[in-house]
Amino acid sequence: MQLKHKIVALGVLPLLLSIAVICALVISLNRQLGDQQAQLIEDSILSSKRAELKNYVEMAQSLIAPLYEDGRGDAYAQQQVLEELRKLSFGVNGYFFVYDREGRSLMHARQTELVGKYLWDMKDPHGLPVIQALLKSAQSGEGFQRYAWNKPSSGQVSDKLAYVVMLDRWGWMLGTGIYLEDVERATQQARAEVTQDIRKTMLSIAVVALVAVLFVFATGMTLNVSEHRLADKKLQRLTQRIVSLQEEERSRVSRELHDGISQLLVSIKFQFELASHLLENGQAHDKGLHTLRDATGRLGEAIGEVRSLSHDLRSSLLDTLGLPAAIGQLAAEFEQRSGLTVIYNDNEFDCHLVDGAVISLFRIVQEGLTNIERHAQARNVSITLHGSKDNVRLTVIDDGVGFNVTQVERRQAGIGLRNIRERVEHFGGRLDLISVPGRSELNVLLPMKSTSGKC
Q: How far is residue 130's CA from residue 122's CA, in Å, rounded to a whole number?
């Protein structure tokens, strides 16, 4: 997977995960609220139905009260009460019923086939012994009982809520009930509304999520394009600098060859030709030998120039004696060439730097000494190379006129300091520049790869 795709994925996936968690929470909370709302609706309807049933029973009690309380022949009064209750009804399925304590049906206005039967053990589809439960509620004074019963108008079993009371003097249970289809319809409607609300909420969240994902994707792509363009520009600048540095190095080597070695070789050629001419003609034998000796000396100078140029390109001591010795030779040659006093110290450490770090430290010393020679107007230079098991520290100090570090950093430094900084950053090191009139200090810290091996 490409980096830009990883960035977009890291931006989109947490967003999608957060939205999924939010959706789950919304669904859970809405369902809980829906259940609570349905329960509240059911409780409210049942509360009103309880009050309605209680009123019906109290009305029936007030209607039969004269006969129930009359002392003239209980059998006659009982028959009259049953007849009065049979006539009472409310709505399509509203009626009264009477049972005795043994569960025998004494009166049922809608299901006359039950009259005279003992229904003590009859159970509803849920396994509830209906008559026993009704008698228990009546005797306890609670009065209300919910059960399933065959609805006369439809012939279908439906939930029913009854209210019953005991007529203790006769041992009867009087009651009535209301079927609860409207409660079920109301609760189902409430849950359907909650489901619809959940769907609308999910749709809204989906729209928001889609917009957010598109925004993150567009932002990621825009950032990627911007970073890609910036990286291309940096790569172009780096390529141009590499080409410029190569051309500068080639120009320097070309000048060294043309101004130094080439002129020496031409001079040597002329001296050899002159000596050859003198010796061939037998003229001034001593003068010819002197010319040969002079040419041989000039040839030695040319060889020295070649060695010096080769040393500038890469010190052979780096490959033979290591970094401390190579920097020591560089310091000695700089002191001899520039006339400055150079003090060099190292702790003769064994090290194994990251590949390429040794030549980078050597080049940093070269760059530092070149800058001192060109700009510092110094008289004394101190070079310290100190290694430990964790890192190696290089310090170059001079007593020159100094420079403004902030200003140099702001204008991105010259080529020399810029090369030093890039070399240090490439190996994950640290560069510190400190400069005041009379003291300029360059500190480089590079990590050590291991404690084994020779620098």
A: 6
- Listed residue (319, 410, 317, 424) closest to 367, CA to CA: 424
Cα R_g (the chain), whole angstroms: 55
CB contact at 8 A, 452 and 349: no
> Contacts from 447-451 at CB under 8 Å and sequence distance 24+?
447/354, 447/390, 447/391, 448/351, 448/352, 448/353, 448/387, 448/388, 448/389, 448/390, 448/391, 448/392, 449/351, 449/352, 449/353, 449/354, 450/352, 451/350, 451/351, 451/352, 451/389
Chain position carrying tokens 């789950």: 24
Contacts by 102-111 with C-beta closer than 8 Å and gap 24+? Answer: 103/131, 103/132, 103/135, 106/82, 106/172, 107/82, 109/85, 110/152, 111/150, 111/152
The count of residues in the chain is 455
Two tokens, residue 304: 């020295």
Q: What is the rounded distance in angstroms from the CA atom of residue 417 to the CA atom of residue 45?
A: 88
Q: How far apart are CA 120 and CA 103, in angstroms?
A: 5
What tens digit of pLDDT does each residue of 270-301 get? 777 777 777 777 665 667 677 777 777 777 77
Greatest mean pLDDT among 119-123, 322-326, 406-410 lies in 119-123
> Where does 70-129 have alpha helices with state H?
74-87
Instruction: Kindly list the structural domains of the chain, giving each domain's residue range(s) and its CATH number in brackets, ordered by start.
Output: 3-185 (3.30.450.20), 317-450 (3.30.565.10)
Look at residues 181, 164, 182 and name the one whose alpha carbon lies nearest to residue 173.
164
Read off the pLDDT band of 437 (50, 70, 90): very high
Give the CA distances from residue 110 to residues 150, 209, 395, in Å, rounded to whole numbers and listed in that order: 11, 60, 112
- Two structure tokens written together for 146: 């919910």
